Amino acid sequence: MSSAGGEVVKHYKDLAFMGFIEVVKHLGTILRNIAFCKKDILNFKPDVLVLIDYPGFNMRIAQWAKQQGIKTVYYISPQIWAWKENRVHALQRDIDKMLVILPFEVDFYKRWNFPVTYTGHPLVEVIGLEKSIPPKQKFSEKPIIALLPGSRKQEIQLKLPIMLSVQKYFPDYQFIIAGAPSIPESIYTPLIPSDTHVSIVYGQTYDLLKQAKAALVTSGTATLETALFSVPQVVCYKGNVLSYWLAKKLIKVKYISLVNLIMDKPVVTELIQHDLNEKRLKEELEKLLNHPQRDQILADYHKLWHLLGDTPASQTAAKAIFDTALGK
Known about the structure:
Blueprint: H1 20-25, H2 27-44, E1 49-52, H3 55-67, E2 72-75, H4 88-94, E3 97-100, H5 103-110, E4 117-118, H6 122-131, E5 144-148, H7 153-164, E6 174-179, H8 185-188, E7 199-202, H9 205-211, E8 212-218, H10 221-228, E9 233-237, H11 241-250, H12 258-263, E10 269-272, H13 278-290, H14 293-309, H15 313-325
Helix pairs in contact: 3-4
């Protein structure tokens, strides 16, 4: 936003606390920042307030803004279709215009008689432009298997060793880890077997995906990015036993990857919890490299691209925000 001329008065990283304990520990900081945000909005006197993602914070601001008579647009819906579905009532009460980026969200909100605007997914625009730019460097003479083990220390330490365990079965391929910006190399190196030639790249995930033959990817937005770069993938998830049990109880979705959720079918294999092991990962990676399944995945990726990208996301969102400001 700052690069587009916006003034950043408080960075979201100052509020990025995840997990119940972390939120409780930093509750004072969170409450002070909510107060700061409210004061700044009143001083600015916007024609319309645009809230982007981050529901724990933004839904509180939306309720307050409604009480102040400020028009609100919410861009990128909270994932209430996955859990805490009853939050839809607060959104209906406090939001003047909801903009959604996933096609199935339109039907979800329709069930609640809440009309929303589908913008398409902004990643399609970003990756469409990125795909037209050649990689800055060639990472390997061998075909590449990209490893995207996540962005948090705990998930990397849990999943990366399993991802790396299959490297010995694919000596003709170069395994390369996409390093997360916030994770130092010292976290990765102890997890890499000393007799392997696995490398790490930072700040070049898109260049890595441009060159990858296949990928092992932690569930999250990275699964969608990998698909939009047309890289066949295995989606990997493994968590703390208690956390996984709670998630199974609370989260109401058929799939964990955005690719499968959007397409409403198992386009890519998801190896979850006990299924994420050396044997299964080897079998699934072999299918991606030497199996007709690869062609089917690529065909489904093509459909996914059009499902998400036939609507110009940024232009559609901007028009909806402008129309709301004008009272249309």
